[in-house]
Amino acid sequence: MGHTEAHLIENPVPSATKQELITKLSRVLDSECLKYLEQDLKPFECDGLSAYPKVPMLVALPTSEHEVCEVLKICYENNVPVVFRGAGTGLSGGAIPYEKGLLLVLSKLNKIVQIDSVSRTAIVQPGVRNAAISQASAKHKLYYAPDPSSQIACSIGGNVAENSGGVHCLKYGLTVNNILKIRFATIEGEIIEIGAEGLDSPGYDLLALICGSEGLLGVVTEITVKLLSSPERAQVIMASFDDVAKAGRAVGDIIAAGIIPAGLEMMDQKATSAVEQFIGAGYPLDAAAILLCESDGADEEVANEIEKTIEVLKKAGATKIEVSRDDAHRLKLWAGRKSAFPAVGRILPDYFCMDGTIPRRTLPMVLERIAEMGTTFNLQCANVFHAGDGNLHPLIMFDANDKDQLRRAEQYGAAILELCVEVGGTITGEHGVGMEKINQMCVQFQPDELSSFLQIKKSFDEKGLLNPGKAVPTLNRCAEFGMMHVHRGEERFPDLPRF
Amino acid sequence: MYIEGKNASLIFQDFRDPNQKLSMQDMDSIILDLRDQLAKAKESGETIRIRGGGSKDFYGLSKQGKTLETTALSGIIEYEPTELVLTAYAGTPLSEIEAALSQNNQMLPFEPPYYGENATFGGCIATGLSGPRRATMGAVRDFVLGVRILDGNGKDLSFGGKVMKNVAGFDVSRVLTGSNGTLGLILSASVKVLPKPEVEKSVCFVTSEKEAIVKMNEIAGLPAPLSGSCFDGEKLVIRLSGAGAAVRAGIERIGGDGFNDQNFWNEIKEQQHPFFRKTGTLIRLSINSASPPIENEQTFLEWNGSLRWLWGSRDLDHYQEIAKARGGNASIFRSDTTCTEIMKLSRPMMRLQEKVKQSLDPHGLFGKNRMFKEF
In what order do the strands lie in the sheet with A320-323? Predict the structure, then answer.
């Protein structure tokens, strides 16, 4: 890729002035749906990642699919970069605005269009909150399975953009496994339906391509999700271990016994002690690690699975096993896990939440290396872990007011992600690349693979207007970052000059 | 089996037949040879038709192009049962993979059809076809974690990975799944696998098609471990899989008569049921599961009613209209006559599909007209 082309994709510039754009957009949006004054723009400066705020040139809050298309047409014609977002809870900075662009906020598209209790589907607009879908379906004894921890606030459009998971995805899958169809606006403002009410559609699986595309390919304006029958019963086991490696092995043992729990989480001592001080979930403070293992389904099924799991955990050397007595107790045990991030946030003012996934068997080695690195970088790190599917969330604690701590924390985080790649894993399991991990993409992928991503991006968005500078780095960026990923002995960036 | 420690090296059980064992170096030289063949084809302007065991030769619109066989590229690369992940070369016989999984009481959750004993792992991924378990467990695309391919420029690329959660980069592995060899040459793939259920039992209801559709959807909405459903024109058969207690409780809740399902679901999966043992044009309709019966047609239902088969006497437009009215699509699955098209896409969708094709195979090297009449 030539330098000019890379430049175009990374730094698009509008061909009209701000005033001209306001005039054009005012023709398709009501005045309260278009923001252009500094004080009105400021609240949109970041998403769930607050480290890199940017104030957009304009904010549009369309109220219908038609308005979305009209806004996109104006942006396309005038070469205006577009970043779109829902609730703005993303953790990787995927929805951080572009200073010379328009932020398309989809929160007003918040209607549940239809719930079909017979074919067990719901049609929703992108601004609908994840949890609201399950709440609305509950009267039919149905629910929407993917449950990211931010589910009370995050919106389903963002879930599609990020391919969000949750604590139950080992058994029930990610967003990509739980949606049937989307209506999708291209950057040209054209609507395309992808997927169908049936389980598959002819042609290439573009639904999978859009899911997790982090706003680089188009704007999702309506989603048809699958609903599942609500489990009759759910019960959780809390198992304590005196050694982190033993807890790690117990996870493998559960799966080897043919059990796929609904949720399987692990926390180390730093995380549990933070949680206990914060909300008092009843976690044992003397355990080196705890496992939370949930079973759900029909009554008999759950009783059977819990019994089998306890047996495995005992054999694996659990020092203490507690089973939830009732739903209140179950929710209390989960509340601790769900508040792990804010709990850690109370120890030191700032933390970075990493999101690598590793082959599960490498867990003891990876945790050991993370601890060693903590000594090297002189920082503390607590570990929470979606153990069932190998998704690790090390929480690096620091004080951002101390510039040296911030620098060390960034280096520590990068080193952890590179370790994940080294052991055969990935830099992001569920939070997305966004802005935060864009440099590590150069570690995970070789230049030819990144070029394929850029070609795919181009096939949807030739001008490079959608979410510029996120998720997929240009080869120039990787060269500047200076990360070498030698893949099967091939030389890296052979076409690029070096300085 | 694995060794722990800082410099852990991983040792995996070797499932390959010792008499035919080829080393990783052999595989690398086979891959280099495939790359050479692609380069030569590209130079001479030929197109390539990728073929594994040939069990799904019937599937697709056109089979033109120089045949490139993948069967030499064979063997399970990595399989550690507690990771629930298996990685194998494309030419590995599907039977070898299922045998290795079976030894560890695990399975491919999407229950892939073979349609011939030579079926390969690569063909299973490339065609993306799934069996009766699909409606509740998911399709091939739901379990593919990563692929290594040669793209239309002969470049050796890897997408996705060997871990269950991975959102780095576009999900190219799932796009390759079901692309029928038209986007790139799959060299190897990693899939998520699951434990085999402890118990499987089926029940049946003798009923009408209309009643069967209602019943299928009703059962699918119950908290029961459903793993298969079909209506063959006379009876609705429901399969439950899971722990003994769960299956027992499910059957109690669902009702129906006991049904001896020995080989029944295999016949459904392999299309060996008498309904499928005919000649003509087999139409596949993927539609809303609760759609009413299709009038004046004899249909075979699967996947809780969302998959319907019929032997067509009219053109594809006619069936597409029927499917469209039911929220889905019609396609030609197999035919003993020459077809001019096998699927219908809207014009903007077709444009997008063509652009995606060009982004991975810019010179149109792979599978000309295998899927679409347009390219």
Answer: A320-323, A233-241, A289-297, A263-268, A380-386, A391-398, A350-353
What CATH number does residue A364 fall under? 3.30.70.2740
Which ipTM did the prediction report?
Answer: 0.94
pLDDT at A482: 61
- pLDDT confidence of residue A494: 38
Question: Min CA distance, B374 vs chain A (Å)?
Answer: 12
C-beta separation of B246 from B225 below 8 A: yes
Residue where a domain terminates, one of A327, A342, A357: A342
- Over chain A, what is the mean pLDDT? 91
Question: How does pLDDT run across A380-427, given as a tens digit for each residue?
Answer: 999 999 999 899 999 999 998 899 998 999 899 999 999 999 999 999
Residues 152-211 of B with CB under 8 A from A: 155-159, 161-172, 174-175, 177-179, 183, 194-196, 198
Q: In the structure, what pLDDT confidence band is assigned to residue A49 with cuts at 50, 70 and 90?
A: confident
Q: Count CA atoms closer than 13 A to A305's CA, side-chain side.
A: 29
For the four alpha carbons of B105, B106, B111 and B115, in that order, the dihedral sign comes to negative
Q: Flag whether pLDDT at A7 surpasses 70.
A: no
Residue-range definition of the domain harbouring residue B218: 199-269
Q: How many Cα atoms sit within 13 Å of A453 on the Cβ side?
A: 27
Same domain, B42 and B153: yes
User: In chain B, where do the E strands start and end?
Assistant: 48-51, 66-69, 76-80, 85-89, 106-107, 144-150, 156-160, 185-192, 194-195, 199-206, 226-231, 235-242, 257-259, 281-286, 300-302, 307-312, 329-335
Nearest-10 Cα torsion for A308, A311, A315, A316: 60
For the stretch A245-270, pLDDT in tens is 899 999 999 998 999 999 999 999 99
- Do residue A121 and residue A221 come from a single domain? yes
- Asked if A204 and B220 come within 8 Å (Cβ–Cβ), the reply is no
User: In this predicted structure, what is the pLDDT of residue A112?
Assistant: 98
CA dist., res. A382 & res. A272, Å (int): 9
Which of chain B's residues have a Cβ under 8 Å away from the Cβ of A148? none
pLDDT at B223: 87
Burial class (CB in 10 A: 0-12, 13-18, 19+), B279: exposed
CB contact under 8 A, A118 and B217: yes
User: What is residue A491's predicted lDDT score, i.e. its pLDDT?
Assistant: 36
Cβ atoms of residues B225 and A301 within 8 Å = yes
B363 belongs to a structural domain: no
Domain count, chain A: 4
Question: Residues of A with CB below 8 A from B228's CB?
Answer: none
Specify the number of domains making up chain B: 3
* Least confident piece of the model among A37-51, B43-57, B286-300: A37-51
Average pLDDT over residues A265-277: 94
The secondary structure of A179-212 as a DSSP string is EEEEEEE-TTS-EEEEE-SSS--SSS-HHHHHTT
pLDDT in tens, A186-206: 999 999 999 999 999 999 999
Residue B237 CB neighbours (<10 A): 21
Q: What is the dihedral of CA A484, A488, A489, A491, to 10 degrees?
A: -50
The range of the structural domain enclosing residue A128 comes to 112-229
In contact, A164 and A129? CB cutoff 8 Å: no
Out of B83, B327, B362, whose CB is closest to A197? B327
B residues 47..76 contacting A (CB < 8 A): none
As a whole number, mean pLDDT of residues A216-228 equals 97
Helix or strand or coil: residue B33?
Answer: helix
| Interchain pair A209, B245: CB under 8 A | no
Extract the tokens encoding A125: 């607009």
Cβ within 8 Å, pair A256-B81: yes
Q: Is residue A471 part of a domain?
A: no
